[in-house]
Amino acid sequence: MVNQGPSRGCHTCKARRVRCDEGRPTCCHCRRLGYICGGYERKPPKLRFKVQVAAGPQRQQNTGAVASAVAAPSLARSPGYPEPDLAMGFFFTYFVDAGRTLASTRGFFEALPPILATEAKDSAATTAVTALATRMLSLWRGDAQSFTAPHKPLGVALARLGSALQTQEERVSRATPFAALVMQFYENMNAIYGFREVNRTHHDGAVALLMQHDLSISDGEIGIHVVRRILHCEVSYRLHSGTAFPANMEEWLKRNLVVQNPSTILDTIGISIANIQHAFTRLRQQPTPESWRAVEILLAEIETTETLLREWPSVLPNHWAPVTLPAVPDAVPPIPTYAGRCDIYPASQVAAIWNIWRCHQLILLKIRLAALDYKARSEPSEYHPPTTLMRGTRERVQELVDAVCHSIPFYVGNRYKRGALSDLTNPTILHTSYFDLDPSSEQFLKYKASDNYMSSEAHRGHIVVQGPWHMMTCLSAVINLLSGNDEGSLLLARALRPGQLNWMRKQFVRTAALVAIELPVKQQPLAHDVALLAGKVSEGLKMASGS
Protein backbone atom coordinates (compact mmCIF):
# COMPACT_ATOMS: atom_id res chain seq x y z
CA MET A 1 0.00 0.00 0.00
CA VAL A 2 1.07 3.58 -0.66
CA ASN A 3 1.22 5.82 2.38
CA GLN A 4 -0.85 8.84 1.43
CA GLY A 5 -0.03 10.75 4.59
CA PRO A 6 -2.36 11.98 7.34
CA SER A 7 -6.10 11.72 6.81
CA ARG A 8 -7.77 14.81 5.38
CA GLY A 9 -11.21 13.72 6.60
CA CYS A 10 -13.51 15.77 8.79
CA HIS A 11 -12.98 15.79 12.54
CA THR A 12 -16.15 13.73 13.18
CA CYS A 13 -15.11 10.89 10.84
CA LYS A 14 -11.63 10.91 12.36
CA ALA A 15 -13.08 10.56 15.86
CA ARG A 16 -15.37 7.72 14.66
CA ARG A 17 -12.41 6.10 12.84
CA VAL A 18 -14.24 5.73 9.54
CA ARG A 19 -13.27 6.73 6.02
CA CYS A 20 -14.44 10.24 5.07
CA ASP A 21 -15.50 11.24 1.55
CA GLU A 22 -14.16 14.76 2.28
CA GLY A 23 -17.30 16.42 0.92
CA ARG A 24 -17.60 20.19 1.29
CA PRO A 25 -18.84 21.98 3.30
CA THR A 26 -19.94 18.81 5.15
CA CYS A 27 -19.20 15.19 4.27
CA CYS A 28 -21.89 12.82 2.98
CA HIS A 29 -21.30 10.24 5.77
CA CYS A 30 -22.16 12.73 8.49
CA ARG A 31 -25.24 14.02 6.62
CA ARG A 32 -26.52 10.49 5.93
CA LEU A 33 -26.12 9.33 9.55
CA GLY A 34 -27.33 12.57 11.10
CA TYR A 35 -24.02 13.49 12.74
CA ILE A 36 -22.80 17.06 13.05
CA CYS A 37 -19.84 17.31 10.68
CA GLY A 38 -16.81 18.66 12.50
CA GLY A 39 -15.39 20.35 9.42
CA TYR A 40 -11.86 20.37 8.10
CA GLU A 41 -10.19 23.32 9.77
CA ARG A 42 -7.09 22.40 11.70
CA LYS A 43 -7.66 22.54 15.46
CA PRO A 44 -5.27 24.62 17.55
CA PRO A 45 -2.58 22.46 19.17
CA LYS A 46 -2.96 21.48 22.81
CA LEU A 47 0.00 22.95 24.67
CA ARG A 48 1.42 21.70 27.92
CA PHE A 49 4.03 23.72 29.75
CA LYS A 50 6.82 21.92 31.56
CA VAL A 51 9.16 23.37 34.16
CA GLN A 52 12.69 22.94 32.80
CA VAL A 53 14.72 24.50 35.58
CA ALA A 54 17.97 22.58 35.81
CA ALA A 55 18.22 20.27 38.80
CA GLY A 56 22.03 20.62 38.98
CA PRO A 57 24.08 23.25 40.81
CA GLN A 58 23.26 26.84 39.87
CA ARG A 59 25.87 29.21 38.42
CA GLN A 60 27.22 31.56 41.07
CA GLN A 61 26.37 35.23 40.64
CA ASN A 62 27.58 38.23 42.62
CA THR A 63 24.19 39.17 43.95
CA GLY A 64 24.81 38.28 47.57
CA ALA A 65 21.94 37.30 49.82
CA VAL A 66 19.32 38.08 47.19
CA ALA A 67 20.61 35.35 44.89
CA SER A 68 20.46 32.68 47.59
CA ALA A 69 16.98 33.77 48.60
CA VAL A 70 15.48 33.35 45.12
CA ALA A 71 17.46 30.29 44.00
CA ALA A 72 15.11 27.73 42.42
CA PRO A 73 14.67 24.55 44.50
CA SER A 74 15.64 21.20 43.04
CA LEU A 75 12.83 19.62 41.08
CA ALA A 76 14.49 16.22 40.79
CA ARG A 77 12.24 13.27 41.42
CA SER A 78 12.51 11.91 44.94
CA PRO A 79 14.28 8.52 44.90
CA GLY A 80 12.26 5.45 45.78
CA TYR A 81 8.71 6.83 45.59
CA PRO A 82 6.79 9.48 43.63
CA GLU A 83 6.50 13.05 44.78
CA PRO A 84 3.53 13.34 47.20
CA ASP A 85 1.96 16.33 45.49
CA LEU A 86 2.11 14.72 42.05
CA ALA A 87 0.75 11.45 43.43
CA MET A 88 -2.13 13.18 45.21
CA GLY A 89 -3.05 15.01 42.02
CA PHE A 90 -3.09 11.75 40.05
CA PHE A 91 -5.06 9.93 42.75
CA PHE A 92 -7.74 12.60 43.14
CA THR A 93 -8.13 13.12 39.40
CA TYR A 94 -8.62 9.50 38.38
CA PHE A 95 -9.80 7.68 41.52
CA VAL A 96 -11.63 10.23 43.67
CA ASP A 97 -13.35 12.72 41.37
CA ALA A 98 -14.27 11.19 38.01
CA GLY A 99 -17.34 8.99 37.70
CA ARG A 100 -18.57 9.35 41.28
CA THR A 101 -21.82 10.92 42.49
CA LEU A 102 -23.80 10.94 45.73
CA ALA A 103 -26.31 8.52 44.18
CA SER A 104 -23.64 5.87 43.59
CA THR A 105 -21.30 6.57 46.50
CA ARG A 106 -20.23 3.78 48.82
CA GLY A 107 -18.72 6.29 51.20
CA PHE A 108 -14.97 5.99 50.68
CA PHE A 109 -13.57 8.09 47.85
CA GLU A 110 -16.34 10.67 48.06
CA ALA A 111 -15.51 11.45 51.70
CA LEU A 112 -11.82 12.14 51.05
CA PRO A 113 -12.07 15.79 49.83
CA PRO A 114 -14.22 17.17 52.70
CA ILE A 115 -12.19 15.34 55.34
CA LEU A 116 -8.75 16.30 54.01
CA ALA A 117 -9.88 19.91 53.49
CA THR A 118 -9.87 20.44 57.26
CA GLU A 119 -6.83 18.30 58.10
CA ALA A 120 -3.22 19.37 58.54
CA LYS A 121 -0.59 18.08 56.14
CA ASP A 122 0.91 15.85 58.83
CA SER A 123 -2.41 14.52 60.18
CA ALA A 124 -3.23 10.82 60.33
CA ALA A 125 -5.75 11.08 57.50
CA THR A 126 -3.48 13.09 55.17
CA THR A 127 -0.44 10.86 55.67
CA ALA A 128 -2.60 7.75 55.11
CA VAL A 129 -3.97 9.09 51.82
CA THR A 130 -0.47 10.17 50.77
CA ALA A 131 0.84 6.64 51.33
CA LEU A 132 -1.99 5.17 49.25
CA ALA A 133 -1.69 7.77 46.48
CA THR A 134 2.06 7.37 46.09
CA ARG A 135 1.69 3.61 45.80
CA MET A 136 -1.06 3.95 43.20
CA LEU A 137 1.12 6.20 41.07
CA SER A 138 4.07 3.81 41.47
CA LEU A 139 1.85 1.03 40.16
CA TRP A 140 0.95 3.06 37.08
CA ARG A 141 4.58 3.96 36.55
CA GLY A 142 5.38 0.27 36.13
CA ASP A 143 6.34 -0.98 39.59
CA ALA A 144 4.64 -4.39 39.64
CA GLN A 145 5.72 -5.05 43.25
CA SER A 146 4.51 -1.65 44.40
CA PHE A 147 2.13 -2.71 47.18
CA THR A 148 4.20 -5.60 48.55
CA ALA A 149 7.54 -3.74 48.75
CA PRO A 150 8.67 -1.60 51.72
CA HIS A 151 7.27 1.91 51.50
CA LYS A 152 8.49 4.84 53.60
CA PRO A 153 5.22 6.87 53.45
CA LEU A 154 3.36 3.78 54.73
CA GLY A 155 5.60 3.67 57.81
CA VAL A 156 5.00 7.38 58.39
CA ALA A 157 1.22 6.90 58.06
CA LEU A 158 1.11 3.94 60.45
CA ALA A 159 3.20 5.79 63.03
CA ARG A 160 1.00 8.88 62.73
CA LEU A 161 -2.18 6.79 63.11
CA GLY A 162 -0.70 5.16 66.20
CA SER A 163 0.06 8.53 67.78
CA ALA A 164 -3.44 9.78 66.95
CA LEU A 165 -4.95 6.87 68.86
CA GLN A 166 -2.99 7.92 71.96
CA THR A 167 -4.58 11.39 72.03
CA GLN A 168 -8.13 11.83 73.31
CA GLU A 169 -8.81 14.78 70.99
CA GLU A 170 -7.77 12.87 67.86
CA ARG A 171 -9.37 9.62 69.01
CA VAL A 172 -12.82 11.22 68.88
CA SER A 173 -12.14 13.05 65.62
CA ARG A 174 -14.00 11.95 62.50
CA ALA A 175 -10.68 11.86 60.59
CA THR A 176 -9.01 9.19 62.74
CA PRO A 177 -11.35 6.26 61.94
CA PHE A 178 -11.30 7.37 58.33
CA ALA A 179 -7.50 7.24 58.35
CA ALA A 180 -7.83 3.64 59.55
CA LEU A 181 -10.20 2.90 56.65
CA VAL A 182 -7.63 4.32 54.21
CA MET A 183 -5.01 2.03 55.76
CA GLN A 184 -7.45 -0.86 55.31
CA PHE A 185 -7.72 0.00 51.61
CA TYR A 186 -3.92 -0.11 51.41
CA GLU A 187 -3.98 -3.50 53.13
CA ASN A 188 -6.59 -4.74 50.63
CA MET A 189 -4.26 -3.86 47.76
CA ASN A 190 -1.32 -5.45 49.54
CA ALA A 191 -3.29 -8.68 49.99
CA ILE A 192 -4.38 -8.78 46.34
CA TYR A 193 -0.84 -8.41 45.02
CA GLY A 194 0.53 -10.73 47.70
CA PHE A 195 -2.04 -13.46 46.83
CA ARG A 196 -3.09 -13.83 50.45
CA GLU A 197 -6.12 -13.37 52.65
CA VAL A 198 -6.74 -9.79 53.70
CA ASN A 199 -6.21 -8.73 57.31
CA ARG A 200 -9.12 -6.60 58.59
CA THR A 201 -7.41 -5.09 61.65
CA HIS A 202 -7.65 -1.47 60.45
CA HIS A 203 -11.32 -1.88 59.55
CA ASP A 204 -12.14 -3.37 62.94
CA GLY A 205 -10.27 -0.55 64.66
CA ALA A 206 -12.25 2.07 62.74
CA VAL A 207 -15.53 0.34 63.62
CA ALA A 208 -14.55 0.16 67.29
CA LEU A 209 -13.80 3.90 67.37
CA LEU A 210 -17.06 4.77 65.63
CA MET A 211 -19.21 2.55 67.84
CA GLN A 212 -17.45 3.58 71.05
CA HIS A 213 -17.78 7.32 70.49
CA ASP A 214 -20.84 7.25 68.22
CA LEU A 215 -18.95 9.58 65.88
CA SER A 216 -21.14 9.03 62.86
CA ILE A 217 -24.50 10.11 64.26
CA SER A 218 -23.60 13.75 64.86
CA ASP A 219 -21.21 14.15 61.95
CA GLY A 220 -23.59 15.02 59.11
CA GLU A 221 -22.91 13.95 55.54
CA ILE A 222 -19.34 12.82 56.26
CA GLY A 223 -20.56 10.53 59.02
CA ILE A 224 -23.07 8.98 56.62
CA HIS A 225 -20.27 8.41 54.10
CA VAL A 226 -18.20 6.56 56.69
CA VAL A 227 -21.13 4.36 57.75
CA ARG A 228 -21.82 3.49 54.10
CA ARG A 229 -18.21 2.40 53.74
CA ILE A 230 -18.42 0.22 56.84
CA LEU A 231 -21.64 -1.39 55.58
CA HIS A 232 -20.25 -2.10 52.12
CA CYS A 233 -17.05 -3.66 53.47
CA GLU A 234 -18.89 -5.78 56.04
CA VAL A 235 -21.35 -7.15 53.47
CA SER A 236 -18.50 -7.92 51.08
CA TYR A 237 -16.57 -9.74 53.82
CA ARG A 238 -19.56 -11.80 55.01
CA LEU A 239 -20.46 -12.89 51.47
CA HIS A 240 -16.86 -13.88 50.69
CA SER A 241 -16.24 -15.67 53.99
CA GLY A 242 -19.68 -17.27 54.38
CA THR A 243 -20.15 -15.93 57.90
CA ALA A 244 -23.30 -14.44 59.41
CA PHE A 245 -23.72 -10.69 59.75
CA PRO A 246 -23.33 -9.67 63.44
CA ALA A 247 -26.68 -8.58 64.88
CA ASN A 248 -25.21 -5.69 66.91
CA MET A 249 -23.37 -4.40 63.84
CA GLU A 250 -26.56 -4.58 61.76
CA GLU A 251 -28.53 -2.67 64.40
CA TRP A 252 -25.86 0.05 64.68
CA LEU A 253 -25.54 0.46 60.90
CA LYS A 254 -29.29 0.70 60.30
CA ARG A 255 -29.65 3.23 63.11
CA ASN A 256 -27.01 5.45 61.52
CA LEU A 257 -28.07 5.10 57.88
CA VAL A 258 -30.63 7.88 57.98
CA VAL A 259 -30.06 8.64 54.28
CA GLN A 260 -29.86 5.79 51.79
CA ASN A 261 -28.91 5.70 48.13
CA PRO A 262 -29.28 2.82 45.60
CA SER A 263 -25.89 1.36 46.53
CA THR A 264 -26.68 1.41 50.26
CA ILE A 265 -30.09 -0.20 49.69
CA LEU A 266 -28.37 -2.99 47.75
CA ASP A 267 -25.84 -3.49 50.55
CA THR A 268 -28.70 -3.67 53.07
CA ILE A 269 -30.23 -6.50 51.04
CA GLY A 270 -26.77 -8.07 51.06
CA ILE A 271 -27.06 -8.51 54.84
CA SER A 272 -30.00 -10.90 54.31
CA ILE A 273 -28.11 -12.78 51.58
CA ALA A 274 -25.08 -13.25 53.86
CA ASN A 275 -27.29 -14.62 56.66
CA ILE A 276 -29.11 -16.98 54.27
CA GLN A 277 -25.80 -18.25 52.91
CA HIS A 278 -24.44 -18.87 56.41
CA ALA A 279 -27.65 -20.60 57.56
CA PHE A 280 -27.62 -23.03 54.63
CA THR A 281 -23.92 -23.84 55.10
CA ARG A 282 -24.52 -24.63 58.77
CA LEU A 283 -27.58 -26.71 57.85
CA ARG A 284 -25.56 -28.92 55.51
CA GLN A 285 -22.72 -29.32 58.00
CA GLN A 286 -25.00 -30.19 60.93
CA PRO A 287 -28.07 -32.01 59.54
CA THR A 288 -30.92 -32.95 61.90
CA PRO A 289 -34.14 -34.97 61.49
CA GLU A 290 -35.95 -31.64 61.11
CA SER A 291 -33.61 -30.32 58.42
CA TRP A 292 -36.29 -30.48 55.76
CA ARG A 293 -38.39 -28.02 57.78
CA ALA A 294 -35.40 -25.67 58.07
CA VAL A 295 -34.95 -25.89 54.29
CA GLU A 296 -38.57 -24.83 53.78
CA ILE A 297 -38.03 -21.77 56.00
CA LEU A 298 -34.81 -20.99 54.14
CA LEU A 299 -36.52 -21.21 50.74
CA ALA A 300 -39.19 -18.77 51.96
CA GLU A 301 -36.46 -16.33 53.06
CA ILE A 302 -34.80 -16.69 49.66
CA GLU A 303 -38.09 -15.87 47.93
CA THR A 304 -38.52 -12.73 50.06
CA THR A 305 -34.97 -11.55 49.37
CA GLU A 306 -35.30 -12.26 45.65
CA THR A 307 -38.39 -10.06 45.61
CA LEU A 308 -36.39 -7.22 47.16
CA LEU A 309 -33.70 -7.65 44.50
CA ARG A 310 -36.27 -7.65 41.70
CA GLU A 311 -37.71 -4.39 43.04
CA TRP A 312 -34.31 -2.72 43.51
CA PRO A 313 -33.99 -1.31 39.93
CA SER A 314 -37.13 0.77 40.54
CA VAL A 315 -35.17 3.06 42.91
CA LEU A 316 -32.49 3.84 40.32
CA PRO A 317 -32.23 7.05 38.29
CA ASN A 318 -33.58 6.49 34.77
CA HIS A 319 -30.25 7.14 33.08
CA TRP A 320 -28.56 4.32 35.04
CA ALA A 321 -30.20 1.64 32.89
CA PRO A 322 -27.70 -0.14 30.59
CA VAL A 323 -27.90 0.88 26.93
CA THR A 324 -27.00 -1.60 24.19
CA LEU A 325 -24.87 -0.14 21.42
CA PRO A 326 -26.27 -0.76 17.93
CA ALA A 327 -22.78 -1.71 16.72
CA VAL A 328 -19.38 -2.30 18.29
CA PRO A 329 -16.89 0.39 17.19
CA ASP A 330 -14.08 -0.76 14.91
CA ALA A 331 -10.70 -0.83 16.62
CA VAL A 332 -7.22 -2.30 16.22
CA PRO A 333 -6.93 -4.61 18.06
CA PRO A 334 -10.68 -5.35 18.05
CA ILE A 335 -12.87 -5.00 21.14
CA PRO A 336 -13.78 -8.52 22.39
CA THR A 337 -17.53 -9.03 22.87
CA TYR A 338 -19.76 -11.92 23.87
CA ALA A 339 -22.30 -12.75 21.14
CA GLY A 340 -21.41 -9.46 19.42
CA ARG A 341 -23.14 -7.29 22.02
CA CYS A 342 -21.94 -4.62 24.44
CA ASP A 343 -23.79 -2.49 26.98
CA ILE A 344 -22.74 0.96 28.14
CA TYR A 345 -23.29 2.80 31.43
CA PRO A 346 -22.94 6.41 32.64
CA ALA A 347 -19.86 5.62 34.74
CA SER A 348 -17.67 2.77 35.92
CA GLN A 349 -19.12 2.87 39.45
CA VAL A 350 -22.69 2.63 38.13
CA ALA A 351 -21.80 -0.46 36.10
CA ALA A 352 -20.10 -1.96 39.17
CA ILE A 353 -23.28 -1.54 41.24
CA TRP A 354 -25.33 -3.27 38.52
CA ASN A 355 -22.88 -6.18 38.50
CA ILE A 356 -23.02 -6.50 42.29
CA TRP A 357 -26.82 -6.74 41.95
CA ARG A 358 -26.37 -9.54 39.39
CA CYS A 359 -23.89 -11.36 41.62
CA HIS A 360 -26.30 -11.14 44.57
CA GLN A 361 -28.97 -12.84 42.47
CA LEU A 362 -26.56 -15.55 41.32
CA ILE A 363 -25.66 -16.29 44.95
CA LEU A 364 -29.34 -16.72 45.84
CA LEU A 365 -29.97 -18.89 42.78
CA LYS A 366 -27.02 -21.08 43.76
CA ILE A 367 -28.35 -21.47 47.32
CA ARG A 368 -31.87 -22.15 46.03
CA LEU A 369 -30.65 -24.92 43.70
CA ALA A 370 -28.48 -26.45 46.40
CA ALA A 371 -31.32 -26.28 48.96
CA LEU A 372 -33.78 -27.95 46.58
CA ASP A 373 -31.23 -30.65 45.81
CA TYR A 374 -30.56 -31.14 49.54
CA LYS A 375 -34.27 -31.43 50.27
CA ALA A 376 -34.81 -33.89 47.44
CA ARG A 377 -31.93 -36.11 48.57
CA SER A 378 -33.18 -36.12 52.17
CA GLU A 379 -36.56 -37.34 50.90
CA PRO A 380 -35.70 -40.05 48.33
CA SER A 381 -39.35 -40.61 47.47
CA GLU A 382 -39.53 -37.05 46.16
CA TYR A 383 -36.10 -36.96 44.47
CA HIS A 384 -36.00 -34.95 41.26
CA PRO A 385 -33.19 -35.08 38.69
CA PRO A 386 -31.09 -31.93 38.05
CA THR A 387 -33.03 -31.16 34.87
CA THR A 388 -36.20 -30.75 36.95
CA LEU A 389 -34.44 -28.55 39.50
CA MET A 390 -33.18 -26.29 36.70
CA ARG A 391 -36.66 -25.69 35.29
CA GLY A 392 -37.35 -21.97 35.27
CA THR A 393 -33.84 -21.15 36.49
CA ARG A 394 -31.71 -21.64 33.37
CA GLU A 395 -33.01 -18.54 31.57
CA ARG A 396 -32.49 -16.32 34.61
CA VAL A 397 -28.93 -17.54 35.13
CA GLN A 398 -28.14 -16.98 31.45
CA GLU A 399 -29.70 -13.52 31.53
CA LEU A 400 -27.59 -12.46 34.53
CA VAL A 401 -24.30 -13.91 33.28
CA ASP A 402 -24.90 -12.53 29.77
CA ALA A 403 -25.34 -9.04 31.25
CA VAL A 404 -22.00 -9.37 33.07
CA CYS A 405 -20.32 -10.45 29.81
CA HIS A 406 -21.88 -7.56 27.90
CA SER A 407 -20.36 -5.05 30.37
CA ILE A 408 -16.77 -6.16 29.67
CA PRO A 409 -16.26 -4.01 26.51
CA PHE A 410 -17.38 -0.96 28.49
CA TYR A 411 -14.85 -1.64 31.23
CA VAL A 412 -11.72 -2.73 29.36
CA GLY A 413 -12.34 -1.98 25.67
CA ASN A 414 -9.59 -3.33 23.42
CA ARG A 415 -6.84 -3.31 26.06
CA TYR A 416 -4.57 -6.34 26.45
CA LYS A 417 -1.37 -5.03 28.02
CA ARG A 418 -0.64 -3.91 31.54
CA GLY A 419 -1.86 -0.38 32.25
CA ALA A 420 0.56 2.53 32.04
CA LEU A 421 0.29 6.30 32.25
CA SER A 422 0.56 6.48 28.46
CA ASP A 423 -2.79 4.65 28.21
CA LEU A 424 -4.54 7.82 29.33
CA THR A 425 -3.74 9.47 25.99
CA ASN A 426 -3.11 6.48 23.71
CA PRO A 427 -5.43 6.98 20.68
CA THR A 428 -5.40 3.26 19.78
CA ILE A 429 -7.12 2.34 23.07
CA LEU A 430 -10.90 2.43 22.68
CA HIS A 431 -13.74 1.82 25.14
CA THR A 432 -17.42 1.65 24.32
CA SER A 433 -19.30 4.54 25.91
CA TYR A 434 -22.13 7.04 25.48
CA PHE A 435 -19.85 8.95 23.13
CA ASP A 436 -20.37 6.17 20.57
CA LEU A 437 -24.05 7.14 20.38
CA ASP A 438 -25.56 9.78 18.13
CA PRO A 439 -25.22 13.07 20.10
CA SER A 440 -28.84 13.88 19.25
CA SER A 441 -30.21 10.52 20.45
CA GLU A 442 -32.54 10.34 23.44
CA GLN A 443 -30.11 8.18 25.42
CA PHE A 444 -27.20 10.58 24.96
CA LEU A 445 -29.31 13.62 25.82
CA LYS A 446 -30.47 11.93 29.05
CA TYR A 447 -26.86 11.17 29.90
CA LYS A 448 -25.77 14.73 29.15
CA ALA A 449 -28.46 16.13 31.45
CA SER A 450 -27.56 13.78 34.33
CA ASP A 451 -25.15 14.26 37.23
CA ASN A 452 -23.00 11.46 35.79
CA TYR A 453 -22.13 13.43 32.66
CA MET A 454 -18.44 14.11 32.07
CA SER A 455 -16.37 15.07 29.07
CA SER A 456 -15.08 12.41 26.71
CA GLU A 457 -11.57 12.96 28.03
CA ALA A 458 -12.65 12.66 31.68
CA HIS A 459 -14.67 9.52 30.92
CA ARG A 460 -11.70 7.96 29.15
CA GLY A 461 -9.37 8.70 32.06
CA HIS A 462 -11.65 7.26 34.73
CA ILE A 463 -12.52 4.11 32.76
CA VAL A 464 -8.86 3.41 31.91
CA VAL A 465 -7.90 3.63 35.59
CA GLN A 466 -10.97 2.21 37.37
CA GLY A 467 -12.46 -0.10 34.74
CA PRO A 468 -10.13 -3.12 35.04
CA TRP A 469 -10.46 -3.18 38.84
CA HIS A 470 -14.24 -3.21 38.77
CA MET A 471 -14.35 -5.85 36.04
CA MET A 472 -11.76 -8.09 37.70
CA THR A 473 -13.70 -7.90 40.97
CA CYS A 474 -16.93 -8.97 39.30
CA LEU A 475 -15.40 -11.73 37.15
CA SER A 476 -13.52 -13.24 40.08
CA ALA A 477 -16.79 -13.42 42.05
CA VAL A 478 -18.73 -15.01 39.16
CA ILE A 479 -15.97 -17.52 38.34
CA ASN A 480 -15.75 -18.55 42.00
CA LEU A 481 -19.52 -19.07 42.09
CA LEU A 482 -19.40 -21.28 39.00
CA SER A 483 -16.17 -23.19 39.67
CA GLY A 484 -16.93 -24.81 43.02
CA ASN A 485 -17.31 -28.55 43.54
CA ASP A 486 -20.50 -28.24 45.59
CA GLU A 487 -23.86 -29.13 44.08
CA GLY A 488 -25.04 -25.53 43.89
CA SER A 489 -22.03 -24.44 41.81
CA LEU A 490 -22.32 -27.46 39.51
CA LEU A 491 -26.01 -26.82 38.90
CA LEU A 492 -25.39 -23.12 38.32
CA ALA A 493 -22.60 -23.81 35.81
CA ARG A 494 -24.84 -26.29 34.00
CA ALA A 495 -27.24 -23.45 33.17
CA LEU A 496 -24.64 -21.48 31.19
CA ARG A 497 -24.40 -21.36 27.43
CA PRO A 498 -21.80 -23.67 25.86
CA GLY A 499 -18.32 -22.20 26.13
CA GLN A 500 -19.44 -19.17 28.16
CA LEU A 501 -17.47 -20.03 31.30
CA ASN A 502 -14.26 -20.51 29.30
CA TRP A 503 -14.83 -17.15 27.58
CA MET A 504 -15.20 -15.45 30.96
CA ARG A 505 -12.03 -17.14 32.24
CA LYS A 506 -10.07 -15.70 29.31
CA GLN A 507 -11.50 -12.24 29.96
CA PHE A 508 -10.60 -12.53 33.64
CA VAL A 509 -6.98 -13.38 32.80
CA ARG A 510 -6.88 -10.46 30.34
CA THR A 511 -8.42 -8.03 32.84
CA ALA A 512 -6.16 -9.11 35.71
CA ALA A 513 -3.11 -8.62 33.48
CA LEU A 514 -4.14 -4.99 32.96
CA VAL A 515 -3.52 -4.35 36.67
CA ALA A 516 -0.31 -6.44 36.76
CA ILE A 517 -1.88 -9.56 38.29
CA GLU A 518 -0.85 -12.55 36.21
CA LEU A 519 -0.75 -16.33 36.40
CA PRO A 520 2.64 -17.69 37.47
CA VAL A 521 2.57 -20.23 34.62
CA LYS A 522 3.81 -19.21 31.19
CA GLN A 523 1.87 -21.68 29.10
CA GLN A 524 -1.80 -21.46 28.12
CA PRO A 525 -3.68 -21.26 31.44
CA LEU A 526 -5.95 -24.16 32.33
CA ALA A 527 -9.38 -23.82 33.89
CA HIS A 528 -7.93 -24.94 37.24
CA ASP A 529 -5.22 -22.24 37.08
CA VAL A 530 -7.76 -19.51 36.34
CA ALA A 531 -10.08 -20.68 39.13
CA LEU A 532 -7.09 -20.70 41.50
CA LEU A 533 -6.13 -17.15 40.50
CA ALA A 534 -9.74 -15.98 40.88
CA GLY A 535 -9.83 -17.51 44.34
CA LYS A 536 -6.58 -15.81 45.36
CA VAL A 537 -7.82 -12.45 44.09
CA SER A 538 -11.10 -12.90 45.98
CA GLU A 539 -9.17 -13.49 49.20
CA GLY A 540 -7.71 -10.02 48.87
CA LEU A 541 -11.03 -8.52 47.79
CA LYS A 542 -12.99 -9.67 50.84
CA MET A 543 -13.10 -6.16 52.25
CA ALA A 544 -13.74 -4.33 48.97
CA SER A 545 -16.09 -5.76 46.36
CA GLY A 546 -15.63 -2.83 44.03
CA SER A 547 -14.97 0.48 45.74
UniProtKB/TrEMBL annotation:
Entries under InterPro entries matching the protein = DHMBA_Reg_Transcription_Factor (IPR053175), Zn2-C6_fun-type_DNA-bd_sf (IPR036864), Zn2Cys6_DnaBD (IPR001138)
Domain Zn(2)-C6 fungal-type residue range list: 9-37
Matching entries from SUPFAM superfamilies are given as: Zn2/Cys6 DNA-binding domain
- Name the domain of life this protein comes from: Eukaryota
Which keywords label this protein?
A: Nucleus
Q: SMART domains in the record, alphabetically?
A: GAL4
State what protein this is by name: Zn(2)-C6 fungal-type domain-containing protein
